[in-house]
Amino acid sequence: MLFNSFEFLLYFPIVTALFFFLPHRFRWQLLLAASCFFYMFFKPEYILILAFTIVVDYYAGILIEEAKTAKQKKYYLLISLIANIGVLAVFKYYNFINENITGVASLFGWKNHIPALTMLLPIGLSFHTFQAMSYTLEISRGNYKAERHFGIYALYVMFYPQLVAGPIERPQNVLHQFHEKKSFDYSRVVDGLRMMLWGMFKKIVIADNLTTYTDGVYNNLHVQTSIAIVVAIFFFAFQIYCDFSAYTDIARGAARVMGYELVKNFNYPFRSRNVTDFWRRWHMSLTTWFNDYLFTPVVISNRGSIKFGIVFALMVTFSLSGLWHGAAWTYVGFGVMHGFATSYEFLTKKWRNRLSKKVNPFIYSRVSQVLTFLFVCYTWIFFRANTMADAFYVLKRIPGFFTEIANWSVTRTKPIFDGSLPKLGLIYCGVFILLLETLHYLDNKYDVFNKLRNQNIVLRWSVYYSLMIIMIFFASSTAHRFIYFQF
């Protein structure tokens, strides 16, 4: 198992106290040891996977920088990429590929004798693999010098606050910070702790309570009413946002306390006016990774029309992005739908711009936001469903929502939610979603989170204690693992 939210709260202050107690020259060793222990708490032997890729990429980076010819540089880069993608292929995609080979073979009456592998997926494998690949890719492009300090490079890959679920960093942003001497700064520490508190609130109070409901629906679809299913579709949107952004807040906050700045990963994604804008606001470190290392090279390599090249690159990028999330066709379907949506937006951009000038700007923006949110919720059905069959079953049940609402408004006798679903928790979820969106609106318009730091101590601590009291009384009875740990 891996640290849950409460165990992390015990681990983090111990490491941080030792960090400020030790002289600067020993701090990287402390953080590297803490990161190794943090990762080994899940499955100790899997540290060898990280060790393998770290050694390969460390020496590959130096060899790429010192290469005399472009051919040598590409050769060393290829070794690095094969090592990293190979680890992903074996641990994350081997069984998926093997199962599909078996399915295709059975169509022709053949048997697949390749055995399946029984093994756990290493925590956060996709995250630290992509971060490691960005290092050698940036060196090969001449954007960064190879890191000669092996321990510092290992820390870049393994830095424990963001090791298992990002954000996915670039060497330009993080590596130099591990060389810099960090001093205790009260205001910075408070900022970091405030960010962690908000992250904990989103995870423990909102995400985990929503998870109890959505799991109850998606794991027992055939006994649910259409109303319960539709509510679960919308609840999952806020669940995954609060869960994933909570981890990012905790990671960035923990790093900031010690003086390290990690990149921002979310920017009010539910305010997006189109799907392209959504991906500029959601999981931004992954979006920019795919844009820089996959989308742009595919577009540049295209020898046909520019429009075809961009559409082709969008479909390839989003299909692989979906597969990045998980070894299942449901994730591929999720990615393909976003590929079609962004392609449509690219091809119709001029027409939509003309339309926006003919409609009231406020109405156009609000309608665009609602339609974007509905589309994203629709695609997340495939993201959350256990199988493709379950996803299509959910889609089939959606029209029944309106019939059940109409019937219930007349008779009010048949229960609209399955008896196993917590009614009071359902109300809490609705209230907390409303609270979340209200705070997001106020922060986006008045920058309330930053202004809070300048308020008097009574107001500040009243807010902090209120959040902590709510966490104590309204925390989910079941602690759920962060969703993105499985990726």
Automatic annotation (TrEMBL):
What InterPro entries does this protein's entry cite? Ac/AlaTfrase_AlgI/DltB, AlgI, MB_O-acyltransferase, MBOAT_fam
| Family, similarity comment | Belongs to the membrane-bound acyltransferase family.
Q: Give the main localization category.
A: membrane
Which keywords are on file for this protein? Answer: Acyltransferase, Cell membrane, Membrane, Transferase, Transmembrane, Transmembrane helix
Protein name per UniProt: MBOAT family protein
UniProt-listed Pfam families: MBOAT
Annotated transmembrane regions: 9-26, 46-64, 76-94, 114-137, 149-168, 221-242, 304-322, 328-347, 359-383, 424-442, 463-484
UniProt superkingdom:
Bacteria
Cellular compartments annotated: Cell membrane
Regarding the membrane, this protein is recorded as: Multi-pass membrane protein
Q: Which residues form the signal peptide?
A: none
